[in-house]
Each structure stands twice: as structure tokens, then as C-alpha cells.
UniProtKB/TrEMBL annotation:
Cellular component annotations (GO), alphabetically ordered: cytoplasm
Protein name, per record: Serine/threonine protein phosphatase
Gene Ontology molecular functions: bis(5'-nucleosyl)-tetraphosphatase (symmetrical) activity; phosphatase activity
InterPro entries for this protein: Ap4A_hydrolase, Calcineurin-like_PHP, Metallo-depent_PP-like
PANTHER family assigned: METALLOPHOSPHOESTERASE (PTHR42850), ZINC-DEPENDENT ENDOPOLYPHOSPHATASE (PTHR42850:SF4)
Domain Calcineurin-like phosphoesterase residue range list: 15-181
Transmembrane intervals: none
GO biological process: RNA decapping
Pfam families documented for this protein: Metallophos (PF00149)
Amino acid sequence: MFNKDRQLATPRVTYAIGDIHGCSELLKILLEKIHEDAHERGNDYRLIFLGDIIDRGPDSRGAMELVYQALREAPENRLLLGNHDEFLLRILACTNESEAVLSHWHKKVGGEQTIISYGLLGNQHPVFLAEEFENHHCHHVQMLKSADNMIIENDYVFVHAGIRPNVPLVDQKEKDLRWIRQEFLDHTEHHEKSLCTGIRLQTISIQKFGIIELL
């Protein structure tokens, strides 16, 4: 199991990959380009997936499998849980809210494409989906359950959505790390550390910091 707020050292280049949203073919190309780039630079490297692996795109299942294989092949690779990924976990938990979450997820935020990619469009009830994922895709569910909320690497912090301004990193709430929007985006003052998020990426010099962020 992963530590939810993991402190990492920086012995190599880090490639941070933003929202994938079911685009498995583009992710496959990107992973190949990353490997080529690191080889040309002569660097070892690791990957940090910034969350939102699923929804909207045509192949969430394939995207999940690519991320799963990347985490298996290199223990230093990491995954952050995105708000779309959280939707799926809340549905599969089969709690009192699961049906309402499923309806919103399916109609409003691209969940239908995810269900189609797993071949489960015929029955859209949380219990049915939970059974299907448990029987056939439990490794994908466990991967999301084991995902980090925040990764701190020296002077950098990796999160999915952002952080609440003027709140210490140790006091940040998981909900904000995955869901915060305007309060974070509108903040113009310096944060405790430099931020790498899946919502708004800016290229950072590899020569200076050893980090490359990729959409």
C-alpha cells in the first residue's frame, strides 16, 4: 500500500503527466516519448500521474491498464487520485450516496464512456458495477484505493487540483487536493512550495529542477 502523503528524494528526472481522461492511445505515445527523451538525456526517470485517468475519452479501461503496468514495473512511479477517479470509488463503495453519484457521473462528467470501455453499459447499478469490478478489474480498483493524495519532493508538491491558499501542507484536506478550483487558481501569492498540478501545468526547466510536466 502507498503512503498517502509520500516524501520522495530526487535522484533522477521526474515526468509529471496531467489528466489522461481515457485517452489510452495518446498516453501510450506519450510514455514512448518520455522513454526516448530520458534515454537521449542519459537520465533515469520516474513518472507521477496526476490523476483523472478515466472518463470522457474512448478507452478508460486501457488507460487504467497502462498506468497499472507503469506502477508495477517501477515502484518509484506514483499515482495521485483525481476527482474523476474518486467518483468511481464512491460508486463502487455501494453506500447510500452511490446511486446519486452514479447518475451524476454517468450523465454529467463522462462516466458513460468509462462504463462503455469496460463493457458494462447494460446494467448501471452500483451493486452490479461493484461485482463486475471485483470479479474482473479488482487490480484497477485497488490501484485507485492505493493512490496518493499528495507527493512532496524537496521544494515541490504534486497534487491533482491544487491546495487551499494560506493553509500549511500538513493541514490540507483531501477534498481540496482533488476538487479545489477558483480559490486556488485566483491566488497570486507564493505557496509554501512550488506546485505541480493536473489542472494547470507549467513547464519547469529540467536542467534546474529535474522535473518535466506534461499535459
